[in-house]
Amino acid sequence: MGSAGSLNRGPIRTLILGCMGAGKTSFMRQMVRCQKKSITNNREYYLYCVQLNLLNVYRELRNVCISLEIQISPELDAAFTEIHEYRHKEKFPQKVIDAISLLRNSQLFDFCRMRQRILQLPQNYNYMIQRADDFMQADYIPSENDIMMSYSQTCGLVRDKVKTQGYDFELLELPGHHLWRAKWSQHFEDPDLVVFVIDLSELCDPAFYNGVLLSSSLICTLFVDFLLVFDIYLKNE
């Protein structure tokens, strides 16, 4: 591996690894935000991502209500169906806005919290619900916080460059899907720094993984996968 402490050898090549939903993209955004004071100059490009997060909250809420045996009226059930069947492309149509508003003004969240303290919902659900009215405005443009609080799946390789405290960093974020993990070793040519991101809250709340029950053993397995890949790389040096 290269000498990360050298100031005259070029940017510090940094690999950002981790399982799906661990927070790799959030780490990237924070690094960029620290230097540039802004995640992006084109915040409107994140409109789809933010609104999709809001839709996912209400799609998961239906599953929570069913699992907790919360009674759903025919009107609310129709609203859930409208959101579930909607294929998000651009800004919300009025029928989706009406469905979200109806569910938001209902007491379903309160009923669910009375049955169970930690709900199997995306961890940003409180933020999404509080900001729902703004997200549905025709002229809505995501704020910096909206972008930071939104989950987005890493598609392909994501690169960026930042400079902090006199050091230049070249960031490379790799997807955490198991198909991509098999290709991690292809990017160990000359890394100076490896950041392996783990969201410890996942050990308490598995809802972030679409309701699939995970345990700490899976997190350990993913980390072991990383160590094995890295060990193979070192032996081939």
Automatic annotation (TrEMBL):
The keyword Transmembrane helix applies. The chain crosses the membrane at residues 208-234. InterPro entries: Gprotein_alpha_su (IPR001019), GproteinA_insert (IPR011025), P-loop_NTPase (IPR027417). GO terms for biological process: adenylate cyclase-modulating G protein-coupled receptor signaling pathway. One of its GO terms (molecular function) is G protein-coupled receptor binding. Keywords: GTP-binding, Magnesium, Membrane, Metal-binding, Nucleotide-binding, Transducer, Transmembrane, Transmembrane helix. It comes from the Eukaryota. This is Uncharacterized protein. It comes from Caenorhabditis nigoni.
